[in-house]
Amino acid sequence: AKNCPHCGAERFKIKIEKPTSFLEETPEEGTKPINPKEVRRRFEKMAKEDLWLHGVNPDVTRPEWTILTVLPIPPVCVRPSITLESGIRSEDDLTHKLVDVIRINQRLRENIDAGSPQLIVEDLWELLQYHVTTYFNNEVSGIPPARHRSGRSLRTLTQRLKGKEGRFRSNLSGKRVDFSARTVISPNPYLSINQVGVPKEIARELTVPIKVTEWNIEEMKQLVLNGPENHPGANYIIRPDGRRIDLRFVQHREMITETLKPGFQIERHLKDGDYVLFNRQPSLHRMSIMAHEVKVMNDKTFRLSLCVCPPYNADFDGDEMNLHVPQSEEARAEAKILMRVQEHILSPRFGGPVIGGIQDFISAAYTLTRKESFFTKGQTQLLLFAGNIKNKMPQPAKTHPETGEPLYSGKSIFSQLLPETLNMETTSKFCKGKECPNKKAGKCAKEECPFDAYVKIINGNMISGVIDKKTFGAMQSQSILHRITKDYSNEAGRIFLDSAVQMLLVLIVQMGFTMGIDDFSVSKETQDDILSTLHAAEKDADKYIEAYLAGDEKTLPQQQGHTYEETLENKVQDVLQEAREKSGDMAMKFLGDDKHAVIMTKTGARGNLVNLSQMAAVVGQQSVRNQRINRGYKDRTLPHFHEHDLGAEARGFVRSSYIKGLTPTEFFFHAMGGREGLVDTAVRTSTSGYMQRRLINALQDVKCEHDFTVRNAAGGVIQFVFGDDLIDPSKSDHGAALDIEALMAKAKNLK
Known about the structure:
38% of the residues lie in helices and 15% in strands. It contains 24 helices and 28 strands. Strands 6-14-7-13-12-15 form a six-stranded mixed beta barrel. The chain has a four-stranded antiparallel beta sheet with strand order 8-11-9-10. A hairpin with a 5-residue loop joins strand 27 (710-711) and strand 28 (717-719).
């Protein structure tokens, strides 16, 4: 509307000069400033019914209240002054700002009273406005921030509240807490996945409040007598009237002990069997914080089972972790029932186990279950005892050809860990898939598989196949651990994993599993074959480079959608990549399947075939941004090469193997390729971290209601049925509601 609906006055255009100057354009006087008094006067005239149209509730607030007539001053406790070591008092930033406001206000009043020219009064008024603006927010765009004498920007009200270091995120949403500990973590393979080893020093410092009752009074008296120095002891007594007695300063503990009676509270040391929360940052998913059972140990680090490393993404190169002690009975119950490690074996992300066998345990499981593995009665009993299997012994598979002693197969020993009604069929990593000669002929050989890759378990007996990462590892759906946890219980899954780990630990210690120069040394003939393959590839590359320089489109036809230069790069990369793969295959063929380094890669325990072939045969092309290395000096990568040299060596092809050692130029190119990986990782971490934060903030109020609809805080429906299929991923079979094949295997072999 051009005119006021109430009085008919004409409405003029208002311009804002940031941050606080308002100008009105009138036909008679042109552009003139409006002072805050005038703005407030106009706001006061606004009718109640008009306010509703502006989205303002007049019963609660008024627009004129946005213009301050009085500046609120916070009390001294909000802006405390500190005394420095030298005895000088240093005032808070807010106090500095308030002093500025008072000083300019005083000058403004003096100038108005003295009848100073309008220009000076306006300047002082603008200066006062500047100080008030920066008092509230010292980061307003368009005006310079107020600074301390030292030159640093003042931290005023808005800066105290906003951002990561502000009041909300730093002191309210997240804060430092009591009853917590942090130290370096170390591995202890003898612990259960549910346990955590806590140093005695920490156990003496962290306390759990326990009510004294008629049933535990004698135990509590003993803890008080032990005091804070001896574990298990107590640090405090809290009387019914709320008074705390610090046992560090009590001379005669016997006298205090006699006064104990039901109703008192004891803050006792952490002891074996208590439940604590264990966390590793960054906490990226639910399993980054889980409840563990305390086991008090000597030394100064937290100890944890190796199998729980994947969900925490922990390793032992100096990682630190946090431990929190629940203080109430309810919190302890929730930790035990909802947060215990065994309750999180199956991940809510994909329904498979996020906890499972890793590294050495996978190599040992393969060694135990392969066809060639047989054990004497003594060895078998030792393995079964380690796996906590009592009163069970498998049938011998054969007798020793010389001594006639009964020998037990590794498969039958491993079978003792499995539930007696477990029936399943799957394949291991050794399955060749479409490359398998039997599959090419049209039928899988199943139990007769020449690679022993078909894992078949009937009524808890492992008939065929080997155990490797696919059947026993963490993050593997349809593994044995997945089936046991899903079909029996989390407890059964935990017992299976703990027992298997203990058994495999004894096996790998006895057997020895290591890696030496022999694992990567190839014969002279193989080395010569590799060299000739590389020479041939480099010749091919040179041929294409010459064709490119001569513009010979017969030898090097231009690819569609690519420049001629891109065509050359693609062709050279393909030739060199093929040569590296061929060389790797030659080395792998020579190394065979029995070397420990090869077992590691083939079972999926650690590393891959590329790592092995780089160590034994050839490192291959180094790339930056998926291109051969092309930047460095003018028209060449390094001063060691001719200008415009497009050859393999000049563009970062490393023909040495790690075992042979790299030349200086190869080493430099290798460092360039490696540096890109490090930078890329750092950049991706920060990007994904910020993206996750935004997603969490956007979805924090979304939840599944009792009618299975997914709604936000306002009750708006986001999904009519949870996940559109009403399947909880962590209770699913890798996303499906049920696994028909697993059910069939079960039904076929019902006892």
